[in-house]
Design goal:
Length: about 140
C-alpha cells in the first residue's frame, strides 16, 4: 500500500507540471493592418461581371453585377457608369466590392448592350481604374 501512495504522488506531480498551451488568437494587427497593405498594393480592376462579357440570351430585365478587386468608393460611381446603346435608366449602387445595377424598364430584345465603367471610379483606398473598362452582353 505504501508503494501505491508513492506512485499516486509521483503521478500527480508529473501531470501537474504540464501546462495546457492555449491556441493562439488572431493578432489585432493582422486583422486590421494586413488587409490594408494587401488592398493598396494591388490593382483596382473588374474581377467579374454578371452577365459575363459576351453572354447571349440575357433576360430583358437583368440584374447587372460588377465585382471589383477592391472595395468601391460609392460617391465615385456618380455619372461614371454608362450603357450603350441607350439603356433605360439604371438604378442601384455599390456594397463593398460589388456594383449592382437594374434597368428601370425592360431592355430591347436581341440587342448587344455595353456597360462602361469610367476610369475615374475609385476604390476606398484612392486607386482608380485608370482606363475606361467595358463588358457586353446580348439580350434574348
Amino acid at each position: 500500500m505504501f508503494m501505491w501512495k508513492k506512485f499516486r504522488i509521483i503521478f500527480v506531480f508529473i501531470f501537474s507540471t504540464f501546462q495546457c498551451i492555449p491556441e493562439p488568437s488572431p493578432s489585432l494587427l493582422g486583422v486590421l493592418i494586413l488587409p490594408l497593405v494587401t488592398q493598396t498594393s494591388g490593382n483596382f480592376t473588374i474581377e467579374s461581371t454578371s452577365p459575363t462579357n459576351g453572354s447571349t440570351g440575357v433576360s430583358l430585365t437583368p440584374t447587372i453585377s460588377i465585382v471589383m478587386t477592391q472595395a468601391i468608393e460609392p460617391t465615385s460611381l456618380n455619372t461614371n457608369i454608362s450603357c450603350s446603346p441607350s439603356c433605360p435608366s439604371l438604378t442601384g449602387g455599390s456594397s463593398n466590392r460589388t456594383i449592382t445595377l437594374t434597368p428601370t424598364s425592360a431592355l430591347t430584345s436581341g440587342v448587344t448592350y455595353t456597360i462602361t465603367l469610367n476610369q475615374n471610379i475609385q476604390s476606398i483606398f484612392g486607386l482608380t481604374l485608370g482606363t475606361n473598362t467595358s463588358f457586353s452582353f446580348t439580350t434574348l
